[in-house]
Amino acid sequence: MLKIGSIELSVPFLQAPLSGYSDYAMRRLARDFGAPLTFLGVMLAKSAANVKVLKKDIFIPREDEHPIGAQILGREPEVMAAGAKCLEGAGYDLIDLNFACPAPKVLARGRGGYLINEPEKALEIYRSVRAAVKCPVTAKLRIGYDGSAESRENFWEIAECLSAEGIDAIAIHGRYVKQRFRDASDWAILTEAKERLGGTTIIGSGDLLDAESAAKALSDSGVDGVLIARGAIGNPWIFRELRSILEGGEKCGEPSITEQGEVILRHFELVSELYDDGKAVRYMRKFLVHYCRRHVERKRVQASMLEAENGEELSAAIKRWYCL
To answer: Is position 135 annotated as part of the catalytic site?
Structure first.
């Protein structure tokens, strides 16, 4: 079980918000394979607060995907609160505050991971959002902005204050912001966080690229749950495999070539419902390079599918290589 405020999940893992990836198609497959909670891709708070933007179908949660969370990005407390309130009104069950994003364009605007440099601003944002919504509120942090002692102190100040004020959960990625995704994630800090922050729900993140790594990190660190991010791109099976390990101690068998093809085709069909033909094919390519990794002829399969210029050609390539 994993408890996040009023939300109770049957397993201690969830799919992370992934900018440019976690649309309805990816979320639906994740749920089908056992993820108990998924997220809309990270959204600017000012966009979330715009009624016209939030009315677009792509941002409206569907009846078959509750509970579902929304992560917001920004630095103005009043705008973050307005965005959170609108997302709750649109049907999202949880609001997550992004104090972790390492993208240069985000940092340049003082958003995301930059806010670790400004503990008071981060806490002001949390308080404003907490007062604006009734649903659970969580925050995503990294373990510092850079490798300095001051930066690490800022991280602990934010985490300890959020814990003291009763935040519903804190997700922590075990790298500092300026590392982005270089070097190994420091899970020892997450163990320390769980020990220092008492009853606060702590969710770990970083280098969870397969089910075995996620299960080991969960067991070794003592955190309450894990957040599956890059490991779920083109790999919805990670949720089924992780559930199998946690429930029985062993990973379930590899999906057959036919099953892989059926899932890829299903993913493309869902994507095609969201975008027109040309955009759907281009958008799908970033998933295909990951899906192909399970195929014994990965390079040939990848080249064939990436050459497809329309939906008919892509569907035919999938069926040919995956024996459908």
So the answer is: no
Catalytic site residue from 86, 101, 135, 292: 101
- 188 and 231 together in one domain: yes
Q: Taking Cα atoms as reference points, which of 286, 281, 320, 282 lies closest to residue 300? A: 320
Tens-place pLDDT, residues 174-211 = 999 999 999 999 999 999 999 999 899 999 999 999 99
- The structure tokens listed for 156 are 């602990």
Note the pLDDT tens digit of each residue in 131-173: 999 999 999 999 999 999 999 999 999 999 999 999 999 999 9
Do residues 64 and 158 both lie within one domain? Answer: yes
Report the predicted TM-score, pTM, of the whole model to 2 decimal places.
0.95
Domain count, the chain: 2
The answer to whether residues 85 and 196 belong to one domain is yes
* Res. 272: pLDDT tops 90: yes
Instruction: Give me the domain span that covers residue 268.
Output: 257-321
Distance of CA 324 to the CA centre of its chain: 31
d(CA 320, CA 18): 30
Alpha helices in the chain (DSSP H): 24-32, 45-48, 51-54, 77-90, 104-108, 119-132, 149-164, 187-196, 211-221, 237-248, 257-274, 277-291, 298-306, 311-321
CATH code of the domain covering residue 166: 3.20.20.70
Within a 13 Å sphere around the CA of 217, how many CA atoms are in the beta-carbon half?
Answer: 30
Spatial CB neighbours of 73, under 8 Å, sequence gap ≥ 6: 42, 43, 44, 45, 98, 101, 106, 111, 112
A 10 A CB-CB count for 166 gives 11
DSSP 8-state assignment for residue 255: P
